[in-house]
Amino acid sequence: MSEETTADTRPEPEPIDDVVIRFAGDSGDGMQLAGTRFTASSALFGNDLATFPNFPAEIRAPAGTLAGVSAFQVHIADWDILTPGDSPDCLVAMNPAALKANIGDVVKGGLVIVNSDAFDERNLHKAGYETNPLEDGSLESYHLLTAPMEQLTKEAVQGTGVKGREVLRSKNFFALGLMSWMYQRPLDPVIDWIESKFGDSPVAAANTAALKAGYNYGLTTEAFHHTYSVAPATLPAGEYTNITGNQSLAWGLVAASQAAGLPLFYGSYPITPASSILEALARLRNFGVRTFQAEDEIAGIGTSVGAAFAGHLAATGTSGPGLALKSEALSLALMAELPLIVVDVQRGGPSTGLPTKVEQSDLLFAMYGRHGEAPLPVIAAATPSDAFEVAIEAARIALKYMTPVILLSDGYIANSSEPWRLPDLTRIPDLTVDYASGPNQGDSFLPYLRDPETLARPWAVPGTPGLEHRLGGLEKQDGTGNVSYDPMNHEHMTILREEKIARIANDISPVEVFGDQDADLLVLGWGSTFGAIRAGVNRARKREGKVAHVHLRHINPFPANLGDVLARFETVLVPELNRGQLSRLIRARYLVDAISQSKVQGQPFKATEIAMRIMQLLDGKDERS
Amino acid sequence: MTDTARYTRADFQTDQEVRWCPGCGDYTILASVQNFLAELDVPRENHVFISGIGCSSRFPYYMNTYGMHSIHGRAPAIASGVAAANPDLHVWVITGDGDALSIGGNHLIHALRRNINITILLFNNQIYGLTKGQYSPTSEVGKRTKTSPMGSIDWPFNPVSLALGAEATFVARTIDMDRAHTAEILTAAYEHEGAAFIEIYQNCNVFNDKAFIELTGRETRDANRIYLEHGKPIVFGKEDDKGVIVGPDGAQVVDVADVGIDRIQVHDAKAPEPGVAFALSRLSVGPHGPTPLGIFRDVSRPTYERQLTDQIAQAQDRQGPGDLDELVRSLGTWTVE
User: Fold this and answer.
1) Taking CB atoms and an 8 Å cutoff, what residues of chain B touch A242?
2) Which residue of B has its CA nearest to A263?
3) For a FRET experiment, which of A35, A478, A538, B328 has its CA 20 to 30 Å from that of A417?
């Protein structure tokens, strides 16, 4: 763009610390792609960022309707941010429905960039507008900028060879080009990506042409002359990549398999929002990964139980409805005391619920959703990149204690992305396991003889001479593993299985108190609410008052010091995207009068919501829900 | 096979008391399988027996091999995981008519179509035994049981037809009382690469006694057992005077003298299309009257685990063994100084 810019007399871009931008359009408009590419350019530019894709469950809801609106929000900053932002500072709306569905979230005075070509009578009607909001003054409190994006895209792609309906497919690149201009993002990373994705094709040429046209439209149109720049963030030094939660979780499983020296087996049935873990692992055959797309959820875990018996690092992944179906086999794995990782990428429930939206409402199900007395370790990822670490931790516990482990993620972590400072891979803990190789009591092999410290039983894999044994769901005699209906043995074994899980508490990191150690108020959270809670706590601390924050990675068992930590605070606030499930666990276990802050709207917490609740509590104005 | 057998039957017996009802057909099948394994020159530790729930599913507890008594209907799925994880093992599935065809029907058909290298022994006694006498998915229409006091109105599955419909590569039927035939079928199934399905008619002398009497009774058995032998005309009866022809209307029994031996169907277990095998499986219902026993189908198709192993080898050839350092950088990185 050097030729144009030399003659430039426009004002310098206004430097800003951060901006929240939301791209919104029909689910077929390519808004997820535009957002992802904008994010990638920002990442390469060195900004800190967090993203939040928000899309409907329908692949293609009727075009132009509110139901079909798909949005991608990205927060870029020159500082270390924790959330994808509460409210967009800038909205790109590709049609009336996208405007209507999102305008309520935009900050007053925010920038609203609209594809004016889509605001015809038919689309306005479909979106439920009686008058055209671009003309009726209803957007007065925003800074409205319009561009005829479809007409300009058509003109831009002439001569590239794309025809008919394909022409308008490039309009997301026009929007991306315009936004790249507005926020001074480089185009080269996008052009490189287009080339790698579409090669030397008419589609590549059209997309590149539309991208440049969007950029140049901003550059040459006076209305768009006020631009912004967000400087690179001063992040800790290191090598970064931009990663979504499902991607990092998949990589974490692979890392664990290498650390354990065991091949990875992943049996799973496609389900939103967990499918992309299966997809990511299916690409990694060269890592020896065996993905097995099973006929149903039950076979997903069933094959994994079989692979665990055969000595693999076995995992299965699903979302809430699938976890329900896996429950019986999970109890078998518990009874057989086989290592297994069960990933639940939570979504709004019950039943099919809100398949593409976030919720943390499977916590009690993960804790208790099995028949019989069946305690299992439960751990949760906090952020997209944390899913990598948590997958390794799940494998560590599963292998060391010979138990299934439930790993909770959710739809927000699964699809959101953040810059991830690549870890020092040499510091991944050694998870090497020793299979049983010979008799463990005199000349005999007792499959349920336990390690005195961990209470784990030996792992003897089929193919090992002399250690032939039978596992099963029937109650085991202690030691021999033979079928036993003896009443005292059943009680003994029930308590032994419970004790084995309870002892893990001594083998996990204690909780750390962030913030004001001498505060009266502690905010306690788990899972993907980490960023919003930490940002909310920080905001409240800047304003007044003292607040502390504890984040739980391990939920069963709780870290050994949690009880003591809770006892130090007068008030404990537990924000959750459910109706108070962790708060119930805390109340039951520690007799602490925890206050639940609940949200079940299929959307993450905003930092503001957390901060406001904290302020209410500090001001003594809280009304308990 | 070696001259000096490595094992005897006793090597495959466990110290667990066998707890089937006295007179149960399961005892005979257990003895047949133990004898068969003792004759194989295969290390005991390479056999894995996976079962579901039901009377027959207690089987692994009595086999001194690796084994798992799992959950109702899921044995084919669990066995698929074992086999996919370690193709060097020989994985057996022990199941019954309720376990395999009712609660576990889905896993059965999918294991068969995938051609996973497992050997499935379906003990069909046409009744729920462990829960004490309810009708099963193979019970005949009209059967009076505790849950069908006016007679069952459920149309039964024909397990061989079902397995052929699922495009299993090996499908056979035998009967508990005929130990020589059972051994023959076990041998062929064991040698088959891929999913092998064997329906074993098994008498439940407590809840469904004499269900197969037409095939086992001294008076009737010769007239009703049709032994299928690959490459031979399908004839049966004491004097081989009966035969089977297959035409557009399916398979039917004829007097060989009426049609001439040349018109009798020559059995082809290797036929690529399962149509004729399916027609043969429809010959008897119940089973009442002449009933084919033996190998209906034995064809070759790449196994699931072979293809999986091949993909891993191909991927490693092409991309090299997985390198975690490269993997975490595969989406592009940037450096903050």
Assistant:
1) 331-332
2) B85
3) A538
